[in-house]
Design the sequence.
């Protein structure tokens, strides 16, 4: 992959990436083996691409996102990520129930890699975009799940990352949030930001991404145009369900 | 809601000092004008040290939700506990000095210039040990139980309720190798001018340095794999 002519356009590059988990220390479980969650993943994602990630449970989707986000370290292989990554792996991670919405924005904006100054400057925009101005000075534990999601999403998108990772977050929002999400994607398209999101909600996927990667057993099973990969995946899933 | 909020910073050590001072003055034959004055500086140093290390040891497990979801400098979790406790320590120290100034004997103001140095020293030691224990505890959860068992022993191995000259020779030699000894003794010298053993200063400085470097290396080597073990 070296000497690629559009190297500065490649945002994320993985070559033969393996991620193995060793057995748990001091466990009473016998015959524990090293688990290989990513086994030889090779892929490139260019700047401004919006990529969907599909696959059954345990296929390695979340691990792949974690590796790209720098949360988890790869065992072997090569991984290059150019730019600031922000990951929305789960709703409310990093949000503390006893802090107010405003305090949580500050904390999470900084966790997302923005400076205190940057977060302070965009504080009003974040609050406005989240649509929960009325409750922003209440403790976070008083929020409904939807309000939490909107606040988390607003913070994540305002941290001005170059690469955004979403892990199963669309499924939780209501109609209004899905619309916000869609609008955001349109904006992202203009700003040439790279977005990867893993989901099981196949119907919404073609709305957001032109490219879909199908993970299976820690490997890339198929990588290509969204509609084609989804069609193939659904066919395969139907076959598997029939077999059971 | 916490009603007393801020006040707990002062209430806790004062209650502790009154109780311990009352009890131990009957058992520890320290030659000092006021046992409370003798006890309090050491107690404050110890509280900072033990609260911080005890809180930090399981911190990566407590914050696993965050560590598994976001990539950020993980040492900030440990440092935030150190800084909060350092602030509490300083505030309690201010109350103590005021108390000393108003009620007890004279205050040796010029000696307090040593304070920043003592603070840095204590902070480096505490941070090093926190990093070491918290990093090891991610993989080996026994560490947390071990530290909980260690701390009360360490308390009595530090000349806080007693002075080192009350010990038999062999025990005194042992206590000299405790990195906390010199720190407690120096702060006590600042307050009431009790002697400090030179040997213990060098031993403590050296072991502080070793502990910090060791803690930092263990943390650096393991922190990128925390996600695997949480």
Sequence:
């Amino acid at each position: 992959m070296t000497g690629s002519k559009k190297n500065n356009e490649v945002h994320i590059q993985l070559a033969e990436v393996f991620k193995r988990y060793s057995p748990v220390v001091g466990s009473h479980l016998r015959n524990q083996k090293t688990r290989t969650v990513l086994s030889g993943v090779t892929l490139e994602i260019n700047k401004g691409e919006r990529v969907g990630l599909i696959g059954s449970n345990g296929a390695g989707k979340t691990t792949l996102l974690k590796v790209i986000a720098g949360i988890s370290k790869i065992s072997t292989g090569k991984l290059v990520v150019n730019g600031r990554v922000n990951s929305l792996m789960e709703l409310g991670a990093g949000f503390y129930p006893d802090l107010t919405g405003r305090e949580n924005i500050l904390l999470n904006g900084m966790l997302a890699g923005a400076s205190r100054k940057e977060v302070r400057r965009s504080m009003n925009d974040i609050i406005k975009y989240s649509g929960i101005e009325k409750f922003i000075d209440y403790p976070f534990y008083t929020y409904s799940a939807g309000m939490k999601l909107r606040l988390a999403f607003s913070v994540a998108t305002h941290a001005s990352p170059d690469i955004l990772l979403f892990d199963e977050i669309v499924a939780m929002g209501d109609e209004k949030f899905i619309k916000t999400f869609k609008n955001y994607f349109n904006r992202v398209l203009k700003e040439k930001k790279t977005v990867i999101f893993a989901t099981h909600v196949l119907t919404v996927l073609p709305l957001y991404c032109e490219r879909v990667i199908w993970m299976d057993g820690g490997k890339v099973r198929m990588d290509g145009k969204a509609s084609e990969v989804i069609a193939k995946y659904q066919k395969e899933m139907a076959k598997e369900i029939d077999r059971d | 809601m916490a009603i007393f909020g801020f006040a707990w910073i002062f209430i806790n050590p004062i209650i502790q000092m009154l109780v311990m001072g009352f009890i131990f003055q009957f058992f520890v034959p320290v030659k000092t004008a006021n046992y409370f004055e003798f006890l309090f500086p050491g107690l404050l140093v110890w509280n900072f040290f033990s609260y911080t290390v005890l809180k930090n040891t399981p911190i990566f497990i407590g914050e696993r939700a965050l560590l598994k979801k976001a990539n950020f400098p993980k040492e900030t979790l440990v440092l935030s506990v150190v800084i909060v406790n350092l602030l509490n320590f300083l505030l309690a120290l201010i109350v103590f000095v005021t108390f000393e100034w108003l009620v007890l004997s004279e205050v040796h103001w010029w000696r307090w210039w040593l304070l920043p140095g003592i603070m840095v020293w204590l902070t480096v030691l505490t941070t090093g040990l926190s990093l070491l224990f918290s990093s090891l505890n991610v993989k080996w959860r026994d560490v947390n139980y071990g530290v909980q068992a260690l701390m009360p022993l360490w308390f009595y191995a530090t000349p806080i309720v007693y002075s080192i000259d009350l010990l038999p020779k062999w025990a005194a030699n042992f206590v000299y190798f405790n990195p906390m000894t010199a720190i407690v003794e120096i702060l006590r010298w600042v307050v009431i001018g009790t002697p400090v053993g030179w040997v213990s200063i060098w031993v403590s400085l050296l072991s502080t340095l070793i502990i910090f470097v060791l803690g930092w290396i263990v943390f650096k080597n393991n922190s990128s794999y925390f996600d695997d073990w949480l």
In short: The mean pLDDT of chain B is 89. Residues 9-23+32-224 of chain B form one domain. The interface with chain A takes residues 65-72, 139-142, 224-225, 227-229 of chain B (CB under 8 Å).
